[in-house]
# Entry
Amino acid sequence: MVGHEEYLLDQTDRDILMALDEDPRMPVLLLAQKTGYARGTVQARLERYRELGLLRLASTRIPPAALGRGLAATVSAELDQHQLESAVAALRRIPEVLECFAPAGGTDLLCRVVATDPDDLYRVSEEIRLCPGIVRTSTSVFLREVVAYRMRPLLEETGKRSRRNAKPRLGQGRGRAVPMTRPASGDRRRVVE
# Structure
């Protein structure tokens, strides 16, 4: 089975996902009407997204400030490479760690965290520092969010690029389409070719 890393979205996927962006709880029938695709097509695509894990959990749409965690930061961690799995397992148990990346360069792990205030951020940073295998941490506070996590512009840009690079399909040449009519029963008009 193809994993979500190998699955490439086509225009149908992008149209469905952009409609879902407006209302993630939109029923399949309404989604089909809004996008112009058959209900079965929409249902099959939604099922594929679930199977491949393409859609983020609904809880990721909740801003941390709504849970009293309005302070956001990144915690960079240097670790003993032999204990990577232990460190990641411990980080997963800290609720304030929203996501964690393994970037290239001098930082081993980069965690996006939230807290209630500076004292709480210190506590979260200490919990991270005390995880097995973590040797040193460095914390940078976000002052404000200037571009929120988003996918719509990327979906739109990818759609534009694929349309520009698409080869014309049969009947979609660059020339002008020639109308074709069929004579009615008993009608002696000729078919235009």
Remarks:
- The CA atoms of residues 170 and 177 lie 12 Å apart.
